[in-house]
Amino acid sequence: MPKANKSAKTAAKAAIAKLNKGQLVLRAIKGGKAASAKMPAARDAAAKAISTKPVPAVADDVPVIGLNLEATKLSPAMAAYFKKCQDKLGFVPNVLLAYAFDMAKLEPFVAMYNELMLGDSGLSKLEREMIAVAVSSQNRCYYCLTAHGAAVRQYSGNPLLGEHLVMNYRVARLNKRQRAMLDFAVKLTASPWSVEEGDRERLRRVGFTDREIWDISAVASFFNMSNRVASATDMRPNTAYHGQAR
What we know:
By secondary structure, this protein is mainly alpha-helical. The chain has helices at 3-21, 41-49, 76-89, 94-99, 103-118, 125-139, 142-156, 159-167, 176-190, 197-205, 210-233, and strands at residues 26-28, 34-36. It has a two-stranded antiparallel ribbon with strand order 1-2.
């Protein structure tokens, strides 16, 4: 073999060996692209720097709201109510703590809430909580969806119903009465100016009395107010709600 050819072959082998030994050995990957078999030094160092330890959980409800409002001394009635909540629930709902900077606001809020949600009505407690969640879903209120989604799960014994109402009440398997009730509450939330006699008549046809139509309207209106206050102040739900009745 001519010396020139031998020299060329020797040079070629040396070049191949250098590549194999060196820094960039390429391999084919899907799509016909090539990638380095070795991670570049910077990426390798970054990968080593990533911690494998779990990140500690940060309390989701601290602070309770995004405003710096100093709590005032509770009135005797409110002190007793807070104790009742602590004894019954194991915590004081953060919405009460949020209002606790002013007794003139906290006491009427509690009275209205208890009358609407727990007082005498042709609507069951579950139905009232369903309205709260459907309205809060329309308004995307984190606090009320979390707290009242938990209440729906508890009253119904059906975690799936709670999830459906939080996401989209229309996918829930509701009876005609419940569906008409939530359709009305959501319409009142999304376009209150468009509610007319035909909407009230649809409620009557599925069995609601005019007094119950008032109660549907009052609950929906209360939560439209509460949703806006909660969103405006970044009110955070108690973390205990997230795991309840799952």
